[in-house]
Design brief:
Length: 293
Amino acid sequence: MKELHGAGVALVTPFQQDGSIDFEALSKLIDFQIDGGMDYLVSLGTTGEVATLSKEEKLAVWKFTAEKVAGRVPLVAGIGGNNTSQVVEDIAAFDVAGYCAILSVSPYYSKPTQTGIYAHYKAIAEVSKLPIILYNVPSRTGSSISPATTIQLAKDFDNIVATKEASGNFAQFNEIMRDKPEDFLLISGDDPITLPMMSIGAVGLISVVANAYPAETASLVHLCAEGNYAEARPIHEKLLRSIDLCFAEANPCGVKYMLQELGIGSDVVRLPLVPVSENVQNLIKREMVDLAN
């Protein structure tokens, strides 16, 4: 799965002022990412506010994105949830044209046991026509995929090929790297710790801040992949404040405001999210000016 090495971005879903999907802005965003050097794109990951989209809207975004990308870079589709039967149905019915993998978040809210998490991904693996990336983000889901469960899934299912790890737990990362099959991939799901994660063997990043800073994010990941941490570190440090502001008042509210400042779509989000406060807007504006100088 060389397609999953390097810098990936979890695309936001731009909205018009009336809350409908802004396909013109999405088109601009896709070009901005590819022109900035991103290696692959993720359509409708959790950053894409997928929980607020209808089935018809999701199908329209996936189709539009595949047609717009037109094979220029690999594409990953985000399909996950805590209703296993619905996730299985969606993955089985997914039109794979233009896509190379599926990113599927661990079931949220239900807080299943490790046995339940294993069974959830087993059901997905048995129907998926594409390789699967596990997504472990316990701060959002309320439970964590243990290293043992990750490794067992990787060993038992050839089409479970990677994990996007956003647990922040380096003991967990080390255990995965030590015990995983050789071709199973560890991917950073957490912008601020990508550099140290890559130093222990992660193959890249699926980023949020790259929506607004694709060139910088791509440079950071590519330098880390080359083992050039001396040159990567200043870029890492340069992006840290922007990363904090992305999450200051819930993702993707911060990065959508950054994109609005760049002339790519609006800062409109769907409830229960709301746009960032005036205070955070001012902080973002100042940081964007500082980064531009």
